[in-house]
Amino acid sequence: MKTRVILIALLGFTALLQAQRQDDVWLFGYDYNNNPLSEGIRFTFGDSLVIVSEQRPMTIWNSYASICDSAGSLILYTNGCYIDNADGTTVENSEGLNPGLLYDLFCEEGSAYTLSQNTIIVQDLGNSDLYHLFHFPLVEGAQGDVYKNLLHTLVDMSASGGQGAIVYKNQIAVNDSLHPDGLHAVRHANGRDWWLVAGKYHSNIYHKLLITPWGITNSQQSIGNVAIDGFAFGELVFSPDGSRLARFNPKDDLQIFDFDRCTGDLSNAKYISIHDDVDTYSHSGLSWSADSRYLYIGELLRLIQFDTWAADLAASMLIVEEAEPPVCFLSGTIGYMELGPDGMIYSRPLNGQNCMHRIKHPERGGTACEFEQNYYQLEYPYANMPHFPN
């Protein structure tokens, strides 16, 4: 009986994933020799993954977010400097996102923002034409360069004849310094609102935004270990069922919390220390399997798996595979990760390159997950990995 209940729940969850489809299009790009058109790659999910090479006006580097409608058609996307709609037309008044150091260095020169995991897009569930962008910039501060303030930009896609226009941009949602291992959003238990969580710089404080049709409120919670290294880049990711939040970077290691989608409370903090030579590096990836059981860490030189249903989480740690020598240029690493609509996990090597890894069966333990390094060898190099809300 218990097995049957779990099966029914999983089938319902799969149907929900298929119904949303707001992450069906992934765009990758690169500024190659400052061409007026950027070489790009498009992943389109659906019944099966279709990959095409294309040129588009927007250059995409590390910073990237996009959203589709419920049918899987692209609505808008951003490179951290400005926003384009599906046909490549710039959304009115969207230039000037993330003002500060990196904007001046890259966006003003016609390139793209170079900060990973700093942007996420959610649709307003009270008005389907409105889209909320949350993003944080790197700016110059009195004590050095800092990731300062979580900014909020609102887009109305019904404006300008359906081409889209900015309602407001760069409005401060959180007036604080943030940690560069990112931010993530999950649907509220009421099915209408959103929770967004971001970690404070050099702290164990988490900012928790509640996004409703009537406005945005911010609360804070101190829990778990302090993120000691302010320049360690990783990922902050909700489990697909929204019941847990995981955070990893190679210097502060792994933390997992329970999450209450009604109240927004984090609880039951667990810390897993991972000691190795990779502690000297600063970038890493993190992703859950679609059934919210297995947690994967792309720790630069190896792929690690945890079984979060195990009685002893630390003891469940398994090194699935070591990084292989490069097949594509600079591809001999395992970096940022994202769970795809097809239930597979996709991972890019650390630097700009032409290869991409995938985990074919993330819901299986050990090597049965089938980690396939350099599985995709693409026509153009790229430097970003998508980051979608749950």
Strand content: 35-45%
The succession of helices and strands, N to C, reads: HEEEEEEHEEEEEEEEEEEEEEEEEEEE
- Any idea what the shape is? globular
Mean pLDDT: 89
Q: Total number of helical segments?
A: 2
What is the C-alpha radius of gyration, as a whole number of Å?
20 Å
The structural class is mainly beta
Q: Give the terminus-to-terminus CA distance.
A: 29 Å
Instruction: Bin the helical content.
Output: under 10%
Unreliable spans are 1-19
Q: Major sheet, described briefly?
A: 8 strands, antiparallel
Q: Give me the count of strands.
A: 26
Your description of this structure?
There is one protein chain. The protein is mostly beta strands and 390 residues long. Strands 7, 8, 9, 10, 11, 12, 13 and 14 form an eight-stranded antiparallel sheet that branches. The two termini are 29 Å apart. The N terminus is likely disordered. Strand 2 and strand 3 form a beta hairpin.
What topology does this entry show?
Blueprint: H1 2-20, E1 25-30, E2 38-44, E3 50-56, E4 65-68, E5 74-78, E6 83-85, H2 101-105, E7 119-123, E8 130-135, E9 138-141, E10 144-156, E11 165-187, E12 194-200, E13 205-212, E14 215-222, E15 235-238, E16 244-249, E17 253-259, E18 266-272, E19 285-288, E20 294-298, E21 302-307, E22 318-322, E23 337-339, E24 345-347, E25 353-359, E26 371-382
Antiparallel strand pairs: 1-2, 2-3, 4-5, 5-6, 7-8, 8-10, 9-10, 10-11, 11-12, 12-13, 13-14, 15-16, 16-17, 17-18, 19-20, 20-21, 21-22, 23-24, 24-25, 25-26
Could you name the key traits of this structure?
single chain, 390 residues, mainly beta, 2 helices, 26 strands, disordered N terminus
